[in-house]
Amino acid sequence: AALTVRFLTRRFIGEYGDMEFIYSHNLTVDGREILFHIWDVPNSQQVEEGSSEEKRIQWADSFVLVYSICDRASFNILPLKIQFIKMAKEGQSQEKVPIVIVGNKRDLHHQRVVSSEEGRLLALSLDCGFYEVSAAE
């Protein structure tokens, strides 16, 4: 949620509840105005097949999966989530689903438990994009 709010408003708010939100945002790209929607879902440590998670996957055209570089569990769940997304989306068509993995909290390097290299290697092995950022900065 902090990363989404930072992207949309350029402000950082450190604490969020466990709430789900859908945000709408206009952005101009190459002279064209694009309306996009962000379904911001709190991190869950499990993949819930046949649930609202599957509905969210069908709703979306692309995915940004965010983990904390200070939380190994949030990183370790990514391969299962990505596999679930790919099965649900790519099983229906031959198109590759755009997925980006984002390591957040880069400013907390002194609390880091997941290296940048681990993030890059995971993204490479799963054919995803990769970035490391700090919502606070």
From TrEMBL:
It comes from the Eukaryota. Keywords: GTP-binding, Hydrolase, Nucleotide-binding. Its EC number is 3.6.5.2. Pfam families: Ras. InterPro entries: P-loop_NTPase, Ras-related_GTPase, Small_GTPase. One of its GO terms (molecular function) is G protein activity. It catalyses: GTP + H2O = GDP + phosphate + H(+). Gene3D superfamilies: P-loop containing nucleotide triphosphate hydrolases (3.40.50.300). SMART domains: RAB, RAS. Belongs to the small GTPase superfamily. Ras family. This is small monomeric GTPase. The gene is Rasl11b_1.
